[in-house]
Amino acid sequence: MSRIKEFNLPDLGEGLTEGEILSWLVAVGDTIELNQPIVEVETAKAAVEIPAKWAGRVQAIFHPEGTTVEVGTPIIAIDTDPNAGPVETPDTPSGTAGGDDLPTPSAASLAAVEVAPAEGMVEPGLIGGPAPGGRTAVLVGYGPRTTAAKRRPRKGDVPAQARPAAAGAAPARPEPAAAPPVEAAPAADRNGHTGAGGLVLAKPPVRKLAKDLGVDLATLTGSGPLGSITREDVQRAAAGATAAAEPVAATRPATAAASFGADREQRIPVKGVRKLTAENMVRSAFTAPHVTEFLTVDMTRAMKALDRLRNRPEWRDVRVSPLLLVAKAVLLAVKRHPMVNSTWSGDEIVVKEYVNLGIAAATERGLIVPNIKDAGRLSLRDLADALTDLVQTAKAGRTSPADMSGGTLTITNVGVFGVDTGTPILPPGESAILAFGAVREMPWVHKGKVRPRQVTTLGLSFDHRIIDGELGSKFLRDIGDFLSDPEAALLAWT
Amino acid sequence: MAKGDPGVTTRGRRAAPRSKKAGAGKAGDPELVQLLTPEGERIESVTGPDGTEYRVDFTDEEYRGLYRDLVLVRKLDAEATALQRQGELGIWASLLGQEAAQVGSGRALRTQDMAFPTYREHGVLYCRGIDPIMPLGLFRGVDQGGWDPNEFKFNMYTIVIGAQTLHATGYAMGIAMDGKTGTDDGEAVIAYFGDGATSQGDVNESFVWAGVFNAPMVFFCQNNQYAISEPLERQTRIPLYQRAAGFGFPGIRVDGNDVLATYAVTRQALDNARHGQGPSLIEAYTYRMGAHTTSDDPTRYRIASEVEAWQAKDPIARMKAFLTKQQLADADFFAEVDEQARRESVHLRERVLAMPNPEPTTLFDHVYPNGSPLVEQQREQFSRYLESFEGSAH
């Protein structure tokens, strides 16, 4: 038994096929103990930490963070006896008995993740067959695996053509990639029936793929059972067509005879934050009738007030930004118009006495909207701390689901991207969202003269089922009033 | 039947516990029986809603024994969770946080008492003297759970939610008919289930049958606050133990993170049952600190501050604090217990990894005690199928 042990990603739930490496908690060279957490993996069911199966030293990590790894693939190698001197086995041929004890990453560990096995012995459409994008989205625990199914051979009943071909594999059959491209197929109709009356054999998903990729099935030579056309045949033909049209594409990237095919498109799997964002946006945009109003405000006085605040000794270490004033303005305006802080729930409107103030934040993982709980009760100082904390947590990617749930009203600070304002979409369940644009020095009529002033534009979207134009306008006007002259507004309102 | 006797249970307004020490009478939980506070302070005795006085009188050695049970049970459970994460078990339902409810009730059982567990009662199983490797074989998929329910008086794990309460009720009615109750050495039955199971038909039917037939049993509900992700407020509008009143038997709530109170309350309820006083419901108020099972991610449905609040009520920490304050144990003792737990968990791991995969045909072995022609025929067919593969040893 080798002292280097590879740990395969186990099925962490019941019947899961893959997991995404969220973060490595150890690095190559680290000494680890039995059951010490080594990696955080997210599956379709849960994000979990995996404890080390053996004590020792981390010899190799096979997959970087962010990769999706199939269950059963080695993810880490651990030297279980690191004090026994250098490892002498790296050039030992792998593939000997005891597959889980291979000293070097086995082939499977290096096989590109999310790429279906290329061998042609597994029929497309069967379990283990190739699938678009390398895999098929399935319900958890059911449906096709994308690894080649390892069926035990049966005695006596070996299919005559299948097994010998396994040794020779691809070269044994005609090269379908060389088939003429799409245009050169006059004899076939749309259903893939050849003009000569012969029927092209291909399964419905393969036909669909061919249609999507613009490949004419009649022009292909099938490499599957009984000469049927496989998914690979189609993909190869599609790639070949592009290659034929652009034989020197690799050296001359921008040619006039541009193709508009898959080679010039990037396909990004929709998952995680992107998927959630999309679902929320669609849900909100098509259930809540949005109205957006705009107000341009002279924030010069407010910016000066911020400067004075920064200069106060007790505020010296506090991060003070215009967003803080906007947050305060929103919270004060909510007090004057509680109805804007509400939820439409079908047969009733839920007006909330607490404000969980959402702040839309751009992070590496996408847009997230954590909220400050019960922000209406916070002093300005506490609000400033909460804002700083929220932003730092979001940037570090540590925002918890609890931080993101229960929001009642949201601010999106699009100004940080240098734009003037926007028409934001309501987070689901909320009735108002304020876009805060960039604060710019602009010509502004001040005391009868055009002066350079610090000006911003606010955009307020609200749910017109709950908030009428009058209420929405008053609410926005109050926010504007506060930002024009915070001191006076404070004196007048509180 | 003793039904209809108003002396069995107290009717009318329930009096607040007349405990001199107010630990059990905290606002919000006026009817929670507690003998050991989260800070490790002992409460001498608590009077339950029906006038029963709950107290424990353990020797120093017994107190230390309970602590040892708690630590071992938690450590073995943690090892099983780790083994699942490492691909050695298919799934595991952790008992983390519920050690006191299980050890307290498990130790309250007398030898002749019969227990009907769910799939999370690893702590009770341990107290019944069953080798803790047994459930791991079940969750590794190499056997169906290998203990003899009759020998250990501990039924097989039941995965179907609440089904075991019906089995327990039938069993309890059976021992009553066999005349095994009514004396000090009579038998009693305990059925374990969770807060989610109280919404099941099976459990409510069991309540009806047990109540009507005065079955000698204890319904022991570990209210760990979540039925997978569904919180308690989606199960009930009233405290769960009050449900018993509607079925005509007493219910009581005990601090399920307090091993002493759980022991006292369970022991009393079992003794009532064995003396023919009928069933009762115990709601052990506790918290599942971990996931529902290893397939679950609790951070998706509960907030960290709630978990932290329960952390402060940890069953082991309060027992340790008690032992330390009362000078019943020293640092050497705690270190020795930890070392034993570590040793046993390593041993458990080694034995799990060494478990042989069963022969496929053992599938047919235990269908009937004396075999059956049909099963034999199926075994033959299956053997032939296995032999049809190349390289098969069959």
Account of the 3D structure:
The complex is a heterodimer of chains A (494) and B (394). Chain A has 494 residues and is α+β, with helices and mostly antiparallel strands. Helix content of chain A is 24%, strand content 20%. With 394 residues, chain B is an alpha/beta fold. Chain B folds into two domains: 332 residues, Rossmann fold, CATH 3.40.50.970; 33 residues. Chain B is 40% helix and 9% strand. In chain B, helix 1 crosses helix 2, helix 1 runs antiparallel to helix 11 and helix 1 runs parallel beside helix 12. Classes of the chains: A alpha+beta (494), B alpha/beta (394). At the A-B interface, strand 5 of A face helix 1 of B.
Condensed summary:
The complex is a heterodimer of chains A (494) and B (394). Chain A has 494 residues and is an alpha+beta fold.
Largest sheet of chain A: 8 strands, mixed
The total of beta strands of chain A comes to: 18
What's the architecture of the largest domain in chain B, going by CATH? Answer: 3-Layer(aba) Sandwich
Question: What would CATH call the homologous superfamily of the largest domain in chain B?
Answer: Thiamin diphosphate (ThDP)-binding fold, Pyr/PP domains
Helix content percent band of chain A: 10-25%
Q: What is the string of helix and strand elements of chain A?
A: EEEEEEEEHHHHHEHHEEEEEHHEEEEHH
Please tally the helical runs of chain B, counting DSSP H or I stretches of 4 or more residues. 13
Assembly type: heterodimer
Shape of chain B: globular
Low-pLDDT sequence parts of chain B: 1-29
Proportion in β-strands of chain B: 5-15%
Largest interface: A-B, 23 and 24 residues
> DSSP helix count of chain A?
11
Any idea what the CATH superfamily of the largest domain in chain A is called? Chloramphenicol acetyltransferase-like domain
Which structural class matches the secondary elements of chain B? alpha/beta
Q: Using the CA coordinates, give the radius of gyration of chain B.
A: 22 Å
The 3D shape of chain A can be described as extended
Distance between the termini of chain B: 60 Å
Total E-strand runs of chain B: 10
The CATH architecture of the largest domain in chain A: 2-Layer Sandwich
**How confident is the prediction overall: mean pLDDT of chain A?**
78
